[in-house]
């Protein structure tokens, strides 16, 4: 986590959620849907900054790599959308997060919206997501991640890991502000002097919001982005994210990764649903 990430470009204003929202279909990175790569690293350990697929404010630090279409191509090898293959768990459509062939890689994806913040960090936070763990030579539980602009003006990364994920199977994880998974796999804080994973505790979000040190920093602070990552230092792992429901994104309504139906197909699906309802009536 880069200490200077986003601080010069992100407004300290939490945007309000939409009063009415529908399931959103997402099939690409970039400004169209507000989902981006940030701390994605190649097998060499090099951080990849794509012109179109990376969130540029993330790279506002000294020595950051310049954006390039070559990095876009490399990111697309590790972070992509598909409706077939083993990572889809049967062809339902997923966002694939692929490990690398060396132990220096990482894949990270996050929703930043329009870049002004996606909400406030408080006790109303909830998230549920469905994902598939491929049976690679090694496996990794995907982490749920929040980037928060603390009330002290510094950026913090909060990461949560669920437990008991099954390989070659669908896994559905749910977390709210009171959830602290067993085996001390609650939320951990990284960056800007935070305790990190080596010495720091894993707590529920509400425990952090009431913590003597971090409560005043994190309570009602602006959430800059929410997303997922695998790595660092994980060889040959791959997961597929099917969908996400978050109180901070799309008004809490499902974000579905994979194919975006064409207008004709979408119309047929809607018509089929209407006819089914009439037959039941």
Describe the structure.
With 281 residues, this protein is of the alpha+beta class. It has one domain (24-280). Helix content is 15%, strand content 27%. It has five helices and 14 strands. The model is unreliable at 7-19 and 265-281 (pLDDT under 50).
Question: How is this structure best summarized?
Answer:
With 281 residues, this protein is of the alpha+beta class. The protein contains five helices and 14 strands. It has helices at residues 69-78, 196-199, 205-209, 215-218, 263-280; strands spanning 24-26, 35-37, 79-82, 94-98, 107-111, 119-120, 126-133, 143-149, 155-160, 169-176, 187-190, 222-230, 238-246, 255-257.
Task: Provide key terms for this protein.
281 residues; alpha+beta; seven-stranded mixed sheet; seven-stranded antiparallel sheet; 5 helices; 14 strands; 15% helix; globular; disordered C terminus
Set out the fold topology.
Blueprint: E1 24-26, E2 35-37, H1 69-78, E3 79-82, E4 94-98, E5 107-111, E6 119-120, E7 126-133, E8 143-149, E9 155-160, E10 169-176, E11 187-190, H2 196-199, H3 205-209, H4 215-218, E12 222-230, E13 238-246, E14 255-257, H5 263-280
Parallel strand pairs: 1-14
Antiparallel strand pairs: 2-5, 3-4, 4-13, 5-12, 6-12, 7-10, 7-13, 8-9, 8-12, 9-11, 13-14
